[in-house]
Amino acid sequence: MLSNMVLTINTFSCCSTSPLSQIYFASFFFTHQLVQTMSMTATPPAVRSYLTPGRPTSKFMTRARMAVRSNLLSFAPILINLQRDCATPLPVLRHVADAMAADMRAGLAVDGRSDLKMILSYVDDLPTGNEKGLFYALDLGGTNFRVLRVQLGGKEERVVATEFDQVSIPQELMFGTSEALFDFIASGLAKFAQKEGGKFHLPHGRTREIGFTFSFPVKQTSIDSGILIKWTKGFAVSGTAGKDVVSCLNEAMQRLGTDMRVSALVNDTVGTLAGARYWDDDVMVAVILGTGTNACYVERVDSIPKLQEQKSVSGRTVCEKILIGYDIVLNDKMHVDEYYLFQIVNTEWGGFSNGLPLSEFDRQMDADSINPGEQIFEKTISGMYLGEIVRRVLVKMAEVADLFGEHASAKLSTPFILGTPHISAMQQDSSKNLEAVGSILYDVVGVDSNVNARKIVWEVCDTIAKRGGRLAGAGIVGILEKMEEDSKGVIYGKRTVVAMDGGLYEHYPHYRKYLQDAVTELLGSQLSKNIVIEHSKDGSGIGAALLAATNSKYEH
Ligand code: ADP
Ligand code: MG
Questions:
Q1: pLDDT of 475 over the 80 cut
Q2: Cα 454 from chain centroid?
């Protein structure tokens, strides 16, 4: 019933001519349907939960029902406007994909010319499977930091053993000093290293080497150094911007007297790509959808104009898989010297903003954020923000139209109280009366809801998740499109894998489906068969350890 209702709205929106009449007709039709739905489904228990408890008299219920009917007239347009502003039909997706590809080119040409920083990772050598020894990884992501150790056994034994630990970052450290944050991380790392044993073995006299995954924008200056450009994802640590984050961590470890050193500084997307590539040679792109979002990919060095002056790439690596790709596509026309060097480029695509469908709620959330005007793609598609956008819509519906009755909830007005895991859980409620939606609304934002209010909330969650997933899919196609244009057939003409990671992608099935739908719509059913979008769970941790191995100062 609910999906019929929304379909009707969309049909009306498409057929009418003036925007005003669209809203009028759609809202009339929507309200009409909803009131009918309500009259059929608003059983006394559902209504009672909406009313003040203990007063379910029939006179009172009739009044309440009338109140709800009149309120529907007020919140229907809010939902309709939201769905219109957040709509992602194919032309919007196509525009986003094309603009993403164009912004990538601009960012590769000159630093500072594009919303996309297109940061060089200095990773020009990917794991081969031959790596051996004990390596550590440290992942500073957003909500948590993770530490991991891995014992690598070369081609035969591969990953012999792994162990990891996770520590949540105290809120005050996210707003504290650089020293306090790095001391906290170093001490977590030291405690973890003390528990080493069993299958993990460090040859005598060696320092433990760490692959440091740092998921914030960094201007990398070599594989083991990088200057923090700015904090994102709600961090506002003082005294780090403009500093080398590897020195910050190494100094903290020295203060503690820990014998460990960072041998590779790795963005989490780059770690994911390296980790996935260890198992599958067709991996060319990696995307993170967690608290924040980012993407990286394998770029040809001759397609990076801003690197031309530095031609400092080691020169030892040929992207073998791309060679093989040419072989297939050009049907043996390839000459032996048609190989090229590659480097992994970190797009920092969270900064993308061109042509995104935004609502008043997005604009207000951005204005209230600690980085207004920045990271607009991230604010539209990533886990930190989806729940908050939904909350803002619900606040308006509650204020303007008493969506949850007359009793306002102070909790609902608390920024970020509704998380993306909550909206994901609400969307997975397929029960007739949406009981799980009701419980989450009650437990998390302190409101009572009847079944119709819950349906509206479900719709709001769906609208925001759908936009996020589809735009993420369009972004992926933008990257593939750019790679395809430069390599003519190598990407679309063979199996190409996009490795995905992050809590949002992992735990939000509707979002994942919307993402895949957008990729299929954009590429068409034939080409999209070659593009495999695959979850690479916790690949970034192992990937960082693998890159520490690849860049080890010891022979392996
Ligand atoms: P980080 O991005 O901090 O490195 P993760 O990749 O684990 O960490 O992602 C955590 C984010 O994933 C959370 O901030 C949240 O937005 C999102 N997330 C976690 N669990 C769920 C869930 N069940 N449904 C939807 N999103 C989730
Ligand atoms: Mg992460």
A1: yes
A2: 26
